[in-house]
Amino acid sequence: MSLTMPVATPKQFEAMLDAAQKGGYAYPAINCSNLVTINAALKAFADQKSDGIIQFSTGAGQFASGLNHKNMVHGVIALAELTHRLAEQYDVLVALNTDHCRPQAAETFLKPLIEETARRRAKGLNNLFQNHMLDASELPLAENMAISKEYLALCAANEIILEVEAGVVGGEEDGAAGTEDTPDEDLYTTPEDMLAVYEALHPLGRFTFAATFGNVHGHYKPGAVKLKPGILKQGQDAVTAKYGAAAEFDLVFHGGSGSSLEEIRETLGYGVVKMNVDTDTQYAFTRPIADFMFKNYDGVLKIDGEIGNKKAYDPRAYLKAAETGMAERIAVACDDLLSTGKSIGAKA
To answer: Does residue 174 carry a pLDDT above 80?
Structure first.
């Protein structure tokens, strides 16, 4: 009988980050919005014997709470609780994260979620979330760090790791967006920025850092996104030169769609331990549904007075194909990020 386990505890999540940093690999962080996408992520991680991260955006929370409500907090809590139950069936570790939360939404999104974890901890239960992202990159760095310090303190008190961002990721994802007017230099975090982030946040608790090096949200043809992974090395070198090897950042790679395998692998050598995967998995989920509809057109529709085919228009028929397609794409991400076969679940 295989070992089963729930979502990672805070200590297990820290062990996951430590193992990735030491082992030179990163975890795919998969944006999910419903039961089927969660199951696709869990299946892929288990099939690949890779630990991983499942994350929810504010938009996913609104969607999950229902069209009549669009309550991002309630929806995200429901998705997280569902993941806790589904993850019990698997023998790999999975951590839960919330994706981009802009500063103006932090009071109404992050704080209630942190409070929900605090309530669970008071009952002796595992954290609802192991990680939250506060994306205050739209603010000047000093203001970004001021609000980041506030939320890191709240997170640290509940053994939650905070993900922060400095610099601008181009494109758009659930309201987090650069613009056409974003200066090129703002797409690249400087070594001075990296030092400022470390000095502001390190005393308060553990955090991960989405430094920017030309990343763009969305999907682009290979070569269209001009990444400069060396920027990550320059920033890491500046911080470790001043504060020692223990100061090395746990970095996060946003906007990776369209990046070459060589660029992805290069970032692993510079301290990236998490890479967000969303656009590619959305397509991998939807493509099999489109194929199913074209092939079963006269079954999913009642054409010319006919009755159609119940087995075709049963949502389970095409959602199984969607889950399979998404899981296959996540497996590729595990291979790309070298997390395949490296689950620490049995040891943690």
So the answer is: no
- Contact residues for 143 (Cβ-Cβ < 8 A; gap 6+): 136
Contacts of 96 (CB under 8 A, 6+ apart): 7, 53, 54, 55, 56, 80, 83, 84, 128, 129, 130, 131
**Catalytic residue positions, numbered:** 99
Q: Output the CA–CA distances (angstroms, integers) from residue 231 to 167, 228, 256, 336, in the order listed.
A: 12, 6, 15, 21
Query: Does the pLDDT at position 1 exceed 50?
Result: no
Q: What is the DSSP secondary-structure string of 163-182? A: EEEES--BSEETTEE--TT-
Return the structure tokens found at 230: 């060396």
Strand 176-177 vs strand 172-173: parallel, antiparallel, or unpaired?
antiparallel
Domains recognised in the chain with CATH numbers: 10-298+325-336 (3.20.20.70)
Query: Are 40 and 34 in contact, with CB atoms under 8 Å apart?
Result: no
CB-facing half-sphere around the CA of 19: CA atoms within 13 A: 20
- Cα angle for residues 187, 243, 22 (degrees, 5° grid): 75
CA–CA–CA angle 56, 107, 134 (5° rounding): 50
Q: Where are the beta strands (DSSP E) in the chain?
A: 27-31, 52-56, 94-98, 131-134, 161-166, 172-173, 176-177, 207-211, 251-253, 272-277
Does pTM surpass 0.90?
yes
